[in-house]
Amino acid sequence: MSKEYSFYPGCSSQEGASSSNYLKSVNAMCDVLDIKLNIIPDWNCCSASIGYCGGGELPRLALSARNIALSEQHNAGQDIVATCAACWLSTKETQERLDSDAGLMSETNEALAEAGLKLENKSKIRHMVEVLIEDVGYEEMAKHVKKPLDGIKIAGYVGCQTNRPFGIEGESFENPKYLDKFIETMGAEPVENYDKKVSCCGGALAFSEPDKSQLLIKDIIEAAYDGGADMIVTPCPVCQMNVEVYQDKINAKHGTKFNIPVTYYSTLMSVAYGKTGKESGLDGQIIRAKQLEAIASK
Does 282 fall in a domain? Predict the structure, then answer.
């Protein structure tokens, strides 16, 4: 029997966007695990970045509140699931802020009423990794492995947004282990004591202060290499993009020779579950994950 969730794709992970390979791999993974994702109709940006540019708190929160209200209207009773760390964080923060401030909740509903919506704010907000850990479980995930990722050593880069301030329940804020467990469950070897696993990649600083951002990324990659990693895996589209696409610029500036693939946990799972490279989103990599391509093509 399939498990159903109200799905919020987010701007970067939607079809045709910069991280659309994430969505491909998530769909492939969910197909195997019998998870049904019901997309929230007419969803909008969560305001993770643009919401802080001006206009105050109400417009920023109202954007995420609208998504929750639409989910409650169209996918009633279903947990809201996001794959993007920023979307998950913004939506979860909105729910918490409105729960704790009756006046702000009233103002938000006044704004939503202009679009014929009313927010109850009762839906559970979850990241996809929470669904995998809590509703599926590592034992069940392991049962579906057809092509173990033998011989690959992977650095599990959690990043900051799925780790602070909320975090994944039961995990350490300083040394969360869930990505390491995903890696092991798919038959690969995690990098032990990866000391940059919860470091920030610089996020939006990539545009405003690129030198600072690239120094943060350099440290993340160097720590992975120091641990003997063949590749890096993450649950965040911003982290994936930043750590992958700036390697050439970092090499040119610092004389390094970085060329390490950066993929999503769902990419690993899709390949291990026997999906093709295209179904797993490997064709969306800038730095090719050749070891995963080889396994997928078997």
Answer: yes
Q: Are 227 and 155 in contact (CB under 8 A)?
A: yes
Which token pair is 109? 């509903």
Q: Look up residue 284 and give its DSSP letter.
A: G
**CATH number, domain at 282?**
3.40.50.11810
Q: Which of 5-19, 108-122, 140-154 has the lowest mean pLDDT?
A: 5-19
Distance CA 181, CA 252 (A): 35
Task: Say what the alpha-carbon torsion angle 83, 89, 95, 98 is, to the nearest 10 degrees.
Answer: -150
Q: Are 71 and 40 in contact (CB under 8 A)?
A: yes
Residue 182: CB atoms within 10 A of its CB come to 25
- What's the pLDDT tens digit per position in 33-73? 999 999 999 999 998 876 566 667 898 899 999 999 999 99
The pLDDT tens digits of the residues spanning 191-206 come to: 999 999 999 999 878 8
> What residue numbers bound the domain in which 199 lies?
138-296
Model-level pTM? 0.94
Query: Cis bond leading into 41, ω under 30°?
Result: no
Q: Extract the tokens encoding 34.
A: 């019998």
Give residue 52's Cα distance to chain centre: 21
Tokens matching residue 55: 């206009």
Domain count for the chain? 2
Map tokens 């160097």 to a residue.
Answer: 222
Of 185, 190, 189, whose CA–CA distance to 273 is shortest? 185
- Average pLDDT, integer, range 278-284: 96
Looking at the chain, which runs of residues are DSSP E strands?
3-8, 35-39, 80-82, 125-127, 153-156, 189-190, 231-234, 262-264
- Three-state DSSP at 112 gives helix
Which class for 82: exposed (0-12), middle (13-18), buried (19 or more C-beta within 10 A)?
buried
